[in-house]
Queue: 3 jobs
Job 1
Amino acid sequence: MSSCSRVALVTGANKGIGFAIARDLCRQFSGDVVLTARDTARGRAAVQQLQAEGLSPRFHQLDIDDLQSIRALRDFLKKEYGGLNVLVNNAGIAFKLDDLTPFDIQAEVTLKTNFFGTRNVCTELLPIMKPHGRVVNISSLQGSKALENCSEDLQEKFRCETLTEEDLVDLMKKFVEDTKNEVHEREGWPNSAYGVSKLGVTVLSRILAQHLDEKRKADMILLNACCPGLVKTDMAGAHGSRTVEEGAETPVYLALLPPDATEPHGQLVHDKVIQNW
């Protein structure tokens, strides 16, 4: 057991917004901060960079596309800390607008990481969240835009308060399947794999928050999705208008909500404000 039993974890934290979130948590969170990255060398280099600034994060390898990697991290957290206090699901990918990869491949790859990978992390780590834990899923207003560009039938399904996690998984799988069969537009889907993946993350956050209310209400765990805005990162490129530090503000705010807070919960938050989507 670590001498400090509180722990915050950030996925995909070797660069960009994830790195900025890890840095802010090192400064503000009373406990250990675990920076994770798929690539061990890059992750360790990021840790060294923060150490050079006088901060002291820990490193653990994590590839959210690999269930064994997620479970190894879960076992590490249980052994070292007896659980987890803060989880920031930041790891994600996006194809560039001018990428010539066929759309069905983009859809499969993007959803594998952004939706299914994020869901797997939640499935494995939510059971070890400690009372007053905070979970932040990095989503995007691109998800809300994707919803607006869905057919009315799909919009109704995604907005349905009784949509189950299994129903949502089926919808995400259907999108990938429809792109493979080149019928996604006819079936009412938008032409944005990234947007659909983040719509999935936003809706998943609502569903998981409902699960927490049903099973662990007394633990007062808060789980939200948030949009960091269009940030100057490798992902957004020149289109970004915000610094990574500005992009980290809302995720860190949600990660550090005080222990007695009861909201936001199950919401999409942008610039610290709950969004109607």
Job 2
Amino acid sequence: MSWIPFKIGQPKKQIVPKTVERDFEREYGKLQQLEDQTKKLQKDMKKSTDADLAMSKSAVKIASDLLSNPLCEQDPVFLEMVTAFDTAMKRMDSFNQEKVNQIQKTVIEPLKKFSSVFPSLNVAVKRREQTLQDYKRLQSKVEKYEEKEKTGPVLAKLHQAREELRPVKEDFEAKNKQLLEEMPKFYSSRIDYFKPSFESLVRAQPAFSRQVVYYTEMHKIFGDLTAQIDEPGLSDEQRERENEVKLSELRALSIVADD
């Protein structure tokens, strides 16, 4: 939301008390900040869920690529390990999708619905501002005739100007009163609105609990697989040296040798 008052000549009479104008600006400013923060939170939540899904989808893709890699063609043990990895990554992706769906339902959608209210509020504030400018313009007109010599034509025009001013004044006062009453209520409602939403997210633990169980099971699966393929007693440094030896043997082959 943004509010840029119309530029117009000010009447000599203070038609809106400064305290009232300060109260209005303060309450409206709080709602502007609330709108900005709501949009930011919605955007950040969307980024978070997108990143979460992208991570699990990438893991599924890696497992799928490994299954189709020649590395697995003639090694049943390695194929078994990669197949287990592929299954585990698909399970992880399923859990992530369930979690993201829950966040979408309990947080992102409520944020989106809450944000949809601000455009109507913005319109109401603009209407109030336009009415205020009409009020000032007509008040200046009345003051102009009040300062003139009270001849018949001037009195007639003064009467007409006051008649034009009255409904506009009443309209502004009604709009101003409504906004000053409802803007604080709307701001205060944010807690009652979002509290159930985030409580629902916190209570939606079955998916997260199962994910903890899943990671425990996956740790066991890969622990068993590691025990099957690892040479007993080898440290990480020894495995690294062994890999370097094997890589050197590969580089010595004529098909990869430098010309």
Job 3
Amino acid sequence: MASKSNEILHEFSPLMQVYKDGRVERLVGKDVVAASVDQETGVESKDVQISQELDISARLYLPKKAKHGTKLPLLVYFHGGGFFVESAFSPFYHTYLNAVVAEADVVAVSVNYRLAPEHPLPTAYEDSWIALQWVASHSNGEGPETWLRGYADFDRVFLGGDSAGGNIAHNMALKIGLEKLKGVNVEGIFLNCPYFWGKEPVGSEATRLEKKGHLEASSFLCRSYVEATWHFVYPNTTGLDDPLLNPVMEPNLSRLGCRRVLVCVAEKDILKDRGWFYKEALEKSEWAGDVEVVEVAGEDHVFNLFFPKGENALSLLKKLASFINGNGV
């Protein structure tokens, strides 16, 4: 039996290493927690299989205040992790969704899509669309899940995500604008430190310094890392100006299928300027909705997941709840 090679083919520390013999070693995002009734918030969760054949699943969340006969906004959430680590069942996302559901009083579906490199893009987008179609199948009072049939208001649907998940949320909203999703009205999308990029630097990207492959800020993200991971997760991409990565290059941007957009960016995050650039592009297009960018000083990429009890994270949580409940943007 041949011995395993320890030679690294792709180095994406601190997230992943891929070896020349084909082995994939995920360094983070492997831990999972069970669905439960959260002791702090009273939020209840359960896991569902969306497609047994494709191995697409989700975790559903129901707030403590849910009552029969009262419909609540529905949040469909896509986790981050560069398209190649993390899951809907990780401690980070379970903790976060419990907090969001309790604060905003919403029903939530946290989608668990398949990951690269075993399932390169566009798989994550395809899985996410299948998940949205599954969600929509409950809008007429049918569908397998009682929580969605009984508590979700399909006229008040929101899509959200962080990092790669923010990228997915945007692209799903665009697909809904182009193709529609029967029975569902997407009111808004929330993009937290969205993973957008492009061939030409914007804002401060051109002047940010890299030091031994790392930014001077605390984040491990740097230009070469961002670009290398995109080509890794999507080998057949058209490049860094692929509209899936660079929404400014999307000719149908004005058809984004929602009327409100909330973008959060962090001061120290290399992706920060892309969030602002996205806002400018939406405003310059013929899209008729409203977009707001919230920049959080002193913070880095998806800070609210790593420090959920921090002052800025709690402030952002309240901002999201206000956005969902119609008090913002």
